[in-house]
Specification:
The complex is a heterodimer of chains A (269) and B (605). In chain A, 68% of the residues lie in helices and 3% in strands. Chain A is mainly alpha-helical and 269 residues long. In chain A, helix 2 runs antiparallel to helix 6. Helix content of chain B is 38%, strand content 19%. By secondary structure, chain B is of the alpha/beta class. Chain B folds into three domains: 243 residues, 3-Layer(aba) Sandwich (Rossmann fold); 99 residues, no CATH class; 153 residues, P-loop containing nucleotide triphosphate hydrolases (Rossmann fold), CATH 3.40.50.300. The chains are: A mainly alpha (269), B alpha/beta (605). Chains A and B meet through helix 8 and helix 9 of A and helix 2, strand 6, helix 3, helix 4 and helix 15 of B.
Chain lengths: 269, 605
């Protein structure tokens, strides 16, 4: 059940995108985030979809993985779609029933908003989580924000915290699965009943999960101590980040893709 | 390097060290008990030492003091000749000391295998290209080279522990501390793990200190320290420690299987064992054969065996028919054509390596997973059939089959033990006035004191927590109780108590299915065994049938040793004799051997 979700997972297909410097990917990710948010027209949407899907193809991500990545956000996208659909009342009326009015503008807006969310999730996954290991992401963030150290911001520590958080996602998912199964065996039911009851049901899962997380944290802290962890000072790296010509080229191509989306959105439209 | 053992340097020297955990959170009136009290010991460089003792005896705390993960309150502790209190020595000690913990998931920091191996050396500032070389060498050494780029989370438990050794090895340590590192591994993975460690100790002169509940592992060490309530209760070579079974049992430990058998033989033959007899397994076997061939001193009454009543082979309570399962159609099968009948009132053990499909199989038994092919049927009473094919009967499945997962204590969530046990009863809508009685009965069955019912489950000890969790399942009065590795993580005494609890449940009429990879316990406690491999049932039968024939199924250690003794006896006699199947306990097997020899003598006379 929970194990089948790909959102936030790293999948090694050893593609060009996997090998690209994570700093390039993070910077480009921000560029794409901004670009996608600026889209208001269907044409821009199509352009963005084509570009992100092309990236997914380059990253050798299978359609199935892509599907399981967007699956968890579909309900939210649908909700945004419906909200926009019914909330917008100006323009040509397409359909009217009781107090619900659907206008052409509402339909357009709903589609753009809903699809935009999905595109953002795809972009996040393709540029970051699916193709970059958590440790690399945190390495890149540490490197990109190292100037903040001047202001006494604990950049290394924050990056380490983030990578540990990401590292423990699969472990916690597995644990949630186990706890739920144990409670289902004792007659718990998470799928039926009122919303309130369902939320109550999840609390009984969250408590043992919380206790387990603290245990993980405590033991991991001791293990890190035992492995001589002492912060970022004097630490070396097995895979130090180094920008090569290929990384600059990859960055250039990604930037061109983002430019293309914006050109279609603002010039051609 | 046998000859310079006497001149080996001292690696760890502890003089009267004590340590008490500070109570940061609560302003409790009770002063916490010291975890380590006045321990003095020395461990030589390049030696292999075991620290044994029940859970909570302070052995882990002591090991943490060595690696300065905690600081001793009083006394002197020096490691590698450096004082642990000396701030300048801190990193010199820690960098040379590797520590492997019990739970592999809680010591892996890197997401990718090679990233994790590099974590330690990166911390101490090892530069490229040496860093890369160390990582590659370490992975090569433990046999994980091919997995260097894999995700650590995808490794099996055994592979994760090997990854932990690789991480330690890449630090080039002088001292390796293992804190119950093999407790979560199946026997084959454990043996692989230990042989890597032994190789490191021999080839690289590594000093190894192991904290373990595995007595057979302890016999391979040069020296044992037994820790009890924070103090050293005994120290000596394995043969010295295990010479006194009473003392071993009092300390909450047990004898290794082979020493257990020779001890039983000696008891029956009124022979006093010496430590030379127990020196190693081979000597043990020779000596055991000699003792058995002494004139029989044991009376025929002592040699008579109690007859066990067998469950009726025709009275089936649960039946698995042609069951197959895969995560999706076309994917590799996790279960492949399983056919299994469970008899009413028996203890059936499901044995096999980690990942062989045991947990998936038991998840089918109460409808947690629906079969992809085939079906599961239960017959709670005569003439009643509940089938997994009838969707609406799912609730009846859950009612009749109770399932206790591994480490059930991690699933407790209520404020009091009482409420936690009540959870399932509330869910299946048991009337309130009936609940109390069921809860008290369940608590009594698992041996939980009534006063404990009102306490917070998180305040209980590990063993008690597990009992509370099991009580939560048996309060629902399932006809069949399924337990996944019920004894894992417990110390020898805890394991014994857990199995006597299971036997007690059986006597109360519950049918028990238990998953285990400890073959000795399976042979000792189960009426029948079902061995699985790669999602298939390889063999089902009594322990004598499954372990008694030549096949690829891993044998209990008692069996291995019993066969060794038997063949030594036949060697001395010069001909074969009929011993019958190996006994389920060391005591039974001692009787078997002596009866066979006695029969032989009577025949010859």
């Amino acid at each position: 059940m929970l194990k089948d979700i790909s959102l936030g997972k790293y999948i090694d297909t050893n593609s060009v995108l996997h090998r690209t410097d994570p700093r390039v990917k993070i910077v480009m990710y921000i560029v794409y985030l901004v670009a996608i948010f600026m889209i208001k027209s269907p044409a821009g949407l199509i352009a963005a979809a084509v570009v992100t899907l092309a990236q997914a193809a380059v990253a050798k991500i299978s359609p199935k993985v892509l599907w399981t990545t967007i699956l968890p956000v579909l309900p939210l996208a649908l909700f945004i779609f419906i909200l926009n659909l019914v909330a917008y009342k100006d323009g040509d009326v397409l359909w009217k029933w009781w107090r619900i009015t659907v206008t052409a503008e509402g339909l357009r807006l709903g589609t753009v908003m809903g699809l935009r969310l999905i595109l953002i999730i795809i972009s996040t996954s393709v540029l970051l989580t699916l193709t970059t290991t958590p440790l690399k992401i945190s390495d890149a963030l540490e490197s990109l924000f190292k100037w903040l150290k001047v202001f006494k911001v604990p950049v290394h520590e924050m990056a380490m915290m983030m990578s540990i958080a990401l590292r423990f996602i699969p472990t916690l998912i597995e644990e949630t699965d186990k706890i739920m199964k144990a409670q289902i065996s004792r007659g718990a039911d998470y799928d039926t009943g009122s919303a309130l009851n369902r939320i109550k049901g999840y609390i009984t899962v969250l408590i043992p999960l919380f206790v387990a997380s603290f245990k993980h944290a405590e033991e991991l802290a001791v293990a890190m101590d035992a492995r001589c962890y002492r912060g970022g000072e004097g630490r070396t790296k097995l895979n130090p980040l180094k920008m090569t010509g290929r990384d600059w080229a990859a960055g250039g191509i990604l930037l061109a893709g983002a430019a293309l989306i914006l050109v279609i959105e603002f010039v051609i439209h | 390097m046998q000859q310079d053992k006497s001149t080996r340097a001292i690696e760890i020297l502890a003089q009267n060290i004590s340590y008490t955990y500070k109570n940061d959170y609560e302003e409790s009136e009770v002063k916490p008990e010291p975890a380590v009290r006045d321990i003095s010991l020395q461990i030589e460089s390049g030696s292999y030492t075991a620290i044994l003792g029940p859970n909570g005896s302070g052995k882990s705390t002591f090991a943490k003091l060595i690696d300065i993960l905690e600081n001793a309150d009083s006394g002197e502790l020096s490691v590698f000749g450096l004082n642990t209190k000396d701030e300048e020595s801190f990193w010199d000690i820690r960098e040379n000391c590797a520590y492997i913990f019990q739970n592999p998931d809680n010591q892996i920091v890197g997401t990718i295998v090679e990233e994790d191996v590099a974590f330690g050396p990166e911390n101490i500032g090892v530069k490229l290209p040496e860093l890369r070389e160390r990582v590659n060498q370490a992975l090569e050494y433990v046999g994980l080279k091919a997995m260097a780029k894999r995700q650590a989370a995808q490794l099996s438990g055994g592979q994760k522990q090997k990854l932990a050794i690789a991480g330690a090895l890449a630090m080039k340590p002088k001292l390796l501390i293992m804190d119950e590192s093999t407790a979560m591994l199946d026997p084959q993975s454990r043996d692989e793990f230990l042989s890597i460690v032994e190789k490191m100790q021999k080839e690289q002169g590594l000093t190894v200190v192991t904290i373990t509940h595995d007595m057979t592992e302890a016999t391979a060490c040069e020296k044992i320290f037994v820790v009890e309530k924070g103090k050293i209760a005994a120290e000596g070579k394995p043969e010295e420690i295990f010479l006194d079974p009473e003392k071993v049992r009092r300390a909450g430990l047990e004898l290794p299987e082979h020493i257990s058998l020779i001890t039983e033989l000696a008891k029956l033959q009124r022979v006093k064992l010496t430590k030379e007899d127990l020196k190693d397994k081979k000597t043990c076997a020779v000596r055991a054969a000699e003792i058995a061939l002494d004139p029989i001193k044991a009376s025929s009454k002592e040699l008579s065996k109690s007859l066990k009543k067998k469950p009726d082979a025709n009275d089936i309570i649960l039946s698995v028919k042609g069951l197959s399962y895969a995560y999706e159609k076309g994917a590799p099968k996790i279960l492949d054509g399983i056919d299994l009948d469970v008899r009413r009132g028996e203890i059936l053990a499901l044995a096999g390596r980690s990942g062989c499909g045991k947990t998936t199989l038991i998840s089918h038994l109460n409808g947690l997973i629906a079969p992809l092919e085939g079906k599961v049927e239960i017959y709670p009473e005569e003439g009643v059939t509940i089938s997994s094919e009838v969707k609406k009967d799912k609730g009846l499945f859950r009612k009749n089959v109770g399932l206790v997962f591994q480490y059930p204590e991690y699933q407790l969530f209520e404020e009091t033990v009482y409420k936690d046990i009540e959870y399932g009863l509330k869910k299946n809508k048991t009337p309130e006035d009936e609940r109390k009685e069921l809860i008290l009965k369940a608590a009594k069955s698992v041996g939980l004191d009534e006063e404990k019912l009102q306490s917070n489950p998180f305040e209980l000890s590990g063993g008690q927590k597990r009992r509370a969790a099991i009580a939560g399942v048996i309060a629902m009065m399932p006809k069949i109780l399924v337990l996944d590795e019920p004894a894992s993580g417990l110390d020898p005494r805890g394991r014994r108590e857990m199995f006597s609890l299971i036997k007690h449940l059986k006597e109360e009429g519950t049918t028990v299915i238990l998953v285990s990879h400890n073959m000795d316990e399976v042979a000792r406690y189960a009426d029948r065994v079902c061995y699985m491999e790669g999602g298939k049932l390889i063999k089902t039968g009594t322990p004598e049938e499954v372990f008694g024939e030549v096949n690829n199924i891993p044998k209990p250690l008692l069996y291995d040793f019993a066969y060794e003794v038997r063949s030594k006896i036949e060697e001395s006699l010069g001909y074969k004799i009929e011993f019958g199947p190996v006994g389920r306990t060391a005591e039974e097997e001692a009787k078997n051997i002596l009866s066979a020899v006695a029969r032989e003598e009577a025949y010859n006379a």
